[in-house]
Predict the 3D structure of the following.
Amino acid sequence: MKNPFAKLFGGRDAPAPPPSEAQNQDHLVIVPIPPLVVVLAQLEKEKGRPLTEAEVIEARGKAICMTMAASRADALAQARGYADLDPAHVWEDWLAFKSQSGD
């Protein structure tokens, strides 16, 4: 059977160009939207008390996230003026954030 897309794409698939070194180093990362620090601060304000570790982890688990290239995530953090909490270390990062912010 004749390839119906041959006129548009040629008779065979062209090999994909090799990824550049920058593309190889720019891996995907998970980015909570809105930032976890904002979600946790709002939750703590609503509860009127410090969050427990279980509450922090539960909030992280319910967070809406997207993936993006690490360089774009870094640019996003720079644009908003602060880095978010690391989801893998959310409890430790939350405690560090609170101690730095004076809460």
